[in-house]
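Model the whole thing, not chain by chain.
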Amino acid sequence: MRIDILTLFPEMFASVLNSSIVKRAADPALHAERAAAAPASPEDAAASGISGSSANPATPSGLPGPSGPPVSYHLVDIRDYTTNKHHKVDRPPFGGGPGMVIQCQPVWDAVMAAEAQDPRPATRVLMTPQGRRLDQAAVAALATKPRVLIIAGHYEGIDERVIEKLAPIEEVSIGDYVLSGGELPAMVLVDAMVRLIPGVLGDETSAHHDSFSGGAKGLLDHPHYTKPREWMGMSVPEVLLSGDHAKIAKWREEQARERTMKRRPDLLG
Ligand code: 6GU
């Protein structure tokens, strides 16, 4: 999957795109086994899967290599597409009111430029508190797309006319609270999507494992325990030390059900 992120604050994305599973998803070195014949060179291993306006170094054409990592990230600074001398992107709202509104032109030009870099049509997503609330089903649907272009709004929002012109576009919120901008929501969406893409998670954390925990059944997860067996006088539930895998699976499902009933009865339908 190619992921384009259009933002006024590209620097906010570095820590997330360079850590953990999200980084792994775009790491050429960790997906060398997908490469047809040639094993990854040390240069490949050093290369980041993140690009600015340029294409993924692993796939110089910007096209998905048949053998490249499952994901590539492409950060686009909307400010680079301003046409005025001071690189201003926002203006006060017509009709008055607080804050500033991002103008149509730089957003439109940034989207057109990003989309021109790859022939696959992009599924467009706008992060906005006015959007539909994100859930796992929506994430799973997006995770099947070859290309997702995410616009992170900021300030009071984006001029409605460019949103209209960009149709079809999915307007997405991550919950009923107010954030300063769409950057953190964009990162939330990226994290949630890439972990569902085949080849991103290792075997032990894979989605198939979820069938033994709450996830696949739409339940909350069961509790987890690790060493030591006793801590501050508290012991690990005996069943987990039994070695009886059927019994353990059954116990975990009961725990998941119980927790869901108590904490999130809305999930049980
Ligand atoms: Cl997508 N944007 C902003 N600014 N705030 C939010 C949000 C998005 N989702 C929840 N709160």
